[in-house]
Design a protein that fits this description.
about 350 residues; alpha/beta; Rossmann fold; 8 helices; about 20% strand
Length: about 350
């Protein structure tokens, strides 16, 4: 039987990110399927708040590494803390959220422990008592399943692997694991953080709504001219008022290659579809987008799908959207922004 550990880290404010609670839910489900107990390990500057948040999750042990050396993401201290917790828990199977912090440190931890690591895990199951994980292949068109005999086995799970655990908070007793974070571990010094203004952030994974801006925004409109500046103003105005996340249907390389203007705030990270991202939002609204298969394959995890397009025979009308508004996206977004501004 596996000895299971859910390994988490806190954010700067001492709370747990949503993806950590999703990893915890996946760990609980696996432990229940195997009839096994599991432990929770946490790393951060101050983890008492995070420990209380997950106190009723059903874990038998709560291990922690805390202190000022573990405030910022740093390979040396993160790897040392994670390895110490894994050893203290005698873990054979470690499930951790696939954050940038753990993605940087845990492959090295697996090497230190003589184990193996798999990243971008989309599912974890225990069919027949053997643990198996699912991963997407071929641009997320094929799901592969694999298992390993090597232990410990570290799994970095992707966001959306399970519904975030939402139990009651309670008092908890944390077992502090000693870690000597000195010398080589602290050689890297975090001198500060450079981040764009909050309004400049247009990719919001936890947003309730995804707005997709298709290539039609930059094409010639009814007057025969493109209105890229107006399109940018409408889209950014909508995002500012709704706090929605922004996606695009076509790569910037394709747009520029066709001689079209490009919305200045779009990057390759915004692209949704076969060669882009597969976001997970409760609702999605596609604008100026024809709903072609290479793009709509990235909508598989969007709950409610709606689209705005002047073509009543576009791809969205063929079973790919719950609602299709046959209308001019410029006019629709201008009206919506005006209604939002009145609130």
């Amino acid at each position: 039987m596996e000895t299971i550990l859910c390994l988490l880290h806190t954010d700067a404010d001492g709370s747990l990110p949503r993806v950590a609670l999703e990893a915890l839910a996946a760990t609980r489900a696996l432990a229940q399927a195997q009839g096994a107990a599991f432990s929770v390990g946490m790393v951060g500057a101050e983890v008492q708040k995070a420990g209380a948040r997950v106190a009723t999750c059903g874990a038998t042990r709560f291990l922690a590494v805390s202190g000022s050396d573990f405030v910022q993401s740093r390979y040396g201290t993160d790897a040392a803390a994670a390895a110490a917790i894994c050893k203290a828990a005698s873990a054979t199977l470690v499930i951790a959220p696939g954050t940038s912090r753990w993605a940087r440190a845990l492959p090295g931890v697996a090497h230190r422990l003589g184990g193996r690591v798999d990243t971008h895990v989309a599912s974890v199951s225990a069919a027949g008592g053997a643990v198996a994980v699912g991963r997407w292949s071929y641009r997320q068109r094929i799901e592969t399943e694999l298992s390993r005999k090597q232990r410990p086995w570290l799994l970095l799970v992707d966001p959306g692997i399970a519904a975030a655990w939402d139990g009651q908070a309670d008092a908890v007793t944390l077992e502090e694991v000693p870690v000597a974070a000195a010398g080589e571990c602290t050689r890297t010094v975090v001198s500060g953080i450079q981040a764009p203004p909050a309004d400049a952030q247009t990719i919001r994974p936890d947003a309730a709504l995804l707005l997709v801006a298709g290539a039609g925004w930059t094409k010639a409109q009814a007057d025969g001219k493109p209105h890229v500046d107006e399109a940018a103003r409408l889209i950014l105005g909508f995002l500012a008022q709704t706090k929605a996340s922004l996606g695009s249907s076509k790569s910037l390389v394709d747009l520029s290659g066709e001689g079209q203007s490009v919305l200045p705030f779009l990057t390759h990270l915004h692209q949704v579809g076969q060669t882009g991202a597969t976001p997970r939002h409760p609702k999605g609204l596609a604008t100026c987008c024809h709903g072609e298969e290479p793009h709509t394959v990235g909508w598989r995890f969007i709950g409610e799908r709606r689209a705005v397009n002047l073509d009543p025979g576009c791809g969205w009308a063929r079973g790919k959207a719950d609602v299709l508004y046959v209308a001019d996206a410029f006019q629709v977004l201008a009206k919506v922004n005006a209604l939002l501004a009145e609130k």
